[in-house]
Fold:
Amino acid sequence: MNLEAFPRVRLGHWPTPLEPMRRLQAHLSGPDGPRLFIKRDDCTGLATGGSKTRKLEFLLGEAVRQGADTLLTHGAVQSNHVRQTAAAAAFAGLQCEALLEARVTNAPAEYADSGNVFLDKLFGTRLHTVPGGTAMDAALEDLATRLRAEGRKPYVIPGGGSNALGSLGYVDCVLELVQQCRAMGLKKPHIVHATGSAGTQAGLVAGIHALGLGWPVTGIGVRAAREVQEARVHALAQRVLDLLGHATPLPRDKVVADDGYIGAGYGQPTAGMVEALQMVARHEGILIDPVYTGKGMAGMVAMLRARRFAADEDVIFVHTGGATALFGYRWAFDTALA
Structure:
């Protein structure tokens, strides 16, 4: 795989650490269970870090190649992707505009003003809030059309940075993991992570398939039903493989997206998320987020308790960042922290 063939702007601190979670392992699976590790993509360095940095390196590279003067994207109100896109634009000297979809309507006022939203504004991004259920891609293209009519040159980035080009960032993550697993003696990796806009999982499974590694990947869904998410990830992963020039099709059964931990919907707190977030904080001193990694970790905790991993597997949780959203979700922890 030759990722050097694609334009790229270096934004992150690579490689991100791969660390053991010894105390969490002792708490959940003991000495005879699978070993637990965490891939610290919350430590990418851009705007407090997160998974979107990997995607944005390739997307920003293409934007610069095209001579864009504005990055244009969308996400939910507390979007980690919008926050990192805003920072990438600031780094590159570009303007940034973003549509924020009000998907969560039962939160207090601080949800709309703190956390990622505060940072979006700090980076100088012009925000446009739209109602939940808006056709976001169409609304984004309408905004792009208006900006072009004003003489500007926007580069449109899909939600989550999740197209084939952006997903190359997680092909690159697989290359990092290969080296780290070899150095640390990990023989049977099993990757677990939160899956939402599909680009992280698509890049992971495409990279693993292209290299012939055979590592299982379990995505824990945060929004869509299993069949919808798996179809979306599989289609995107195949486009990534096409972009890489890899001829062997991806088997459909290589994409797994468990939808059992979504709860009432996207961005809605669950008891499992609150428990998992506190557990990781108090056993490992690591902050995860309430929307993505919290539910992803809740899924991994449930899998460990149900003994769904083999005892000789090395379970790697990919921490995709997002802890800044905690400041918009204090209300979800009032009872747990009382």
The first helix runs from residue 22 to 28. The beta strands are 18-20, 35-40, 70-76, 95-102, 126-131, 154-156, 189-195, 217-221, 256-258, 314-319. The CA atoms of residues 289 and 322 lie 5 Å apart. The chain is about 40% helix and 15% strand.
